[in-house]
Amino acid sequence: MENKQSASRRREAAAVAKGSVNMSSCEFESLEKSLESHLPEAELVQVKRILYGKETRKLELPVSALQAASEHDFELKGYQFDASQEQLRPPRRTRVGLVQHRIVLPTDAPILDQINAMHTRIGVIAEVAAMCGVNIICFQETWTMPFAFCTREKEPWTEFAESAEEGITTRFCQELARKYNMVVVSPILEREELHGTLWNTAVVISNSGNVMGKSRKNHIPRVGDFNESTYYMEGDSGHTVFQTQFGRIAVNICYGRHHPLNWFMYSMNGAEIIFNPSATVGVLSEPMWPIEARNAAIANHCFTCAINRVGTEQFKSEFTSGDGRKAHHDFGHFYGSSYVAAPDGSRTPGLSRTRDGLLVVELDLNLNRQVSDKWSFKMTGRYAEYAEELQRAIRHDFTPKIVKE
């Protein structure tokens, strides 16, 4: 006779099958916890092997950091990717910190109050990251504000935009970088005063506290609620890579993760770690989320870091999606689940779908070349041929090469 727990699971599965429960929007905490709760240990090992590749070792974190995370109500996890010991190169270990969080104040609170509240919250998490030895920390897309770009309203949301070089958020991040000897990747809504242009931008700040530069979002979505083209332009910064003390990094902002060539170009410019700060909801993209950054790590022989915000953000004014749905005050649950993927196809478990969190991951960058030597994707790529065919494909008189009977 099946027990009550099994019967409950069967009823839940039936409800999902009938569409009475939308599991993409239900706030269950994480895929990992669900698997661990329901699978026998031996079976769980095999499922994780298929889902996550080679097992990623847990990273021992300071007790003081774990206590601070608990006191300030955010999840703290740590993992480690190892590389083989080489004879001619020492290990190249660096620690990255991925931060996911919900907004602190309601969306109708005064703007400066919202920004200051986010600074305070991130300041606490960054301090814990420093306790864990993080060398490079990256925040989520436009981390100082609600993700209001789907409301179609310009005011008050454009008031969150600030200078990438001299804005209050960049100055705040410069203080963090100097204080903790940490590279800071700070995605913001940027205002370029000279031309009055807004950009979705990641500011990269060296561990010295100097602004190294910025990377602007290359691809702007036009998908349902996420039609952001009314707010900012496609980026003009190309595929910039930043040589930091702790490795060469790049920032592929949000929607760019759906474009394989976008990841590829950062890799071609020498990126060893590509960060993907995002804001995306369950009903739209969750089945894609565990796959895309991992695929990019495999294809490009580099580490990738996928970061998503959490929570459901409510807006005072209703808005529509242009898809026949009724007007609504939110566009769904941001499902967190931030993770890091390695070039050998392995990846860490994700952070929670529902809680603020800090994921600390130690990478041995030697793994990039070791995997490249094994699989040789870049060496065997036919780039000259691809470039020639792409050049033809973008012409107005292009005719595809199709053989017919």
From TrEMBL:
Domain CN hydrolase intervals: 94-365
Gene Ontology molecular function terms on file: beta-ureidopropionase activity
Coiled-coil region: none
A cellular component term, taken from the record's GO annotations: cytoplasm
Record's keyword annotation contains Nucleotidyltransferase: no
SUPFAM superfamilies: Carbon-nitrogen hydrolase
InterPro entries: Aliph_Amidase/BUP, C-N_Hydrolase, C-N_Hydrolase_sf
Pathway: Amino-acid biosynthesis; beta-alanine biosynthesis
Enzyme Commission number(s) of this protein: 3.5.1.6
One Pfam family linked to the record: CN_hydrolase
Subcellular location: Cytoplasm
Keywords recorded for this protein, A-Z: Cytoplasm, Hydrolase, Phosphoprotein
Record-level GO BP terms: beta-alanine biosynthetic process via 3-ureidopropionate
Function, as annotated: Catalyzes a late step in pyrimidine degradation. Converts N-carbamoyl-beta-alanine (3-ureidopropanoate) into beta-alanine, ammonia and carbon dioxide. Likewise, converts N-carbamoyl-beta-aminoisobutyrate (3-ureidoisobutyrate) into beta-aminoisobutyrate, ammonia and carbon dioxide.
Complex and partners: Homodimer, homotetramer, homooctamer; can also form higher homooligomers.
Protein name: Beta-ureidopropionase
UniProt organism field: Nothobranchius furzeri (Turquoise killifish)
Name of the gene this protein is made from: UPB1
